[in-house]
Amino acid sequence: MNDIDAPLREPLSAEALEARLRSIGEQRYHHRHPFQLMLQNGELDRRQVQAWALNRYYYQAMIPHKDASLIARLDDPALRREWRSRLVDHDGEAEGEGGISRWLMLTDGLGLDRDMVVSTRRILPATRFAVDAYIHFVRERSVLEAIASSLTELFSPMVIGQRVSGMLKHYDFVSAETLAYFEPRLTQAPRDADMALDYVTRHARRLDQQQAVLDALIFKCNVLWTQLDALHHAYVAPGHVPPGAWSDKGAADDR
Ligand SMILES: O=C(O)c1cc(C(=O)O)c2c(n1)C(=O)C(=O)c1cc(C(=O)O)[nH]c1-2
Hints:
PQQ biosynthesis, Haem_Oase-like_multi-hlx, pyrroloquinoline-quinone synthase activity, binds pyrroloquinoline quinone, EC 1.3.3.11, PqqC
């Protein structure tokens, strides 16, 4: 059994808790996933990158639902105020602004039909199951666990940097404009992650709380990992596209 899977035996200091959270990210975050490595190393074709962007749209679209449900459960106005910036980051202040709109610039740039993308009807079943599991987790678990599950963002700037530079280098069908989603994330993610880490290290003092926090981060790494597993299975090898999913040869609309 790996270190990070061993149950805690005694409460950790805030520093030791943070170190353990970071070692979970090092071992379980999706920067190690074969599909992510193929994406950043230029080993995917246009269809496979389209499949990634189409499926990940569902994650993007559901993040504000997740954050709104968390805000609804927070008693502290100061914390609600801080968390509210995440909604603005994704939804923008006006039509055409924010992360979801920027993600649609990517799917547009890749030649995917916008209505098809926004409908989410052609995503992989496993994408929907994994993302929905995250939404349910945040709704149903304690506020502490819900906040801890966002801590994958501690690791996202690293993977985003590698992904964007690799994609720009290797693929002529993407550009800095179509990948514009990621640029603001490089400052938004550290701001959000620092705040969540501060909350978690201040509020998880007892052993059971600390164990729950560690498990929440492992759960969330699995949410991200599972999405890439599903993409790999459907669009890389063995290439089994589930019936009804995008690029299913028997389905009508493949754009
Ligand atoms: O590109 C990535 O690899 C990546 C990872 C993650 C993450 O680690 O959960 C997020 C994002 N991007 C992202 O763009 C984003 O808005 C986001 C919100 C959250 C969250 O859990 O609240 N994670 C992530």
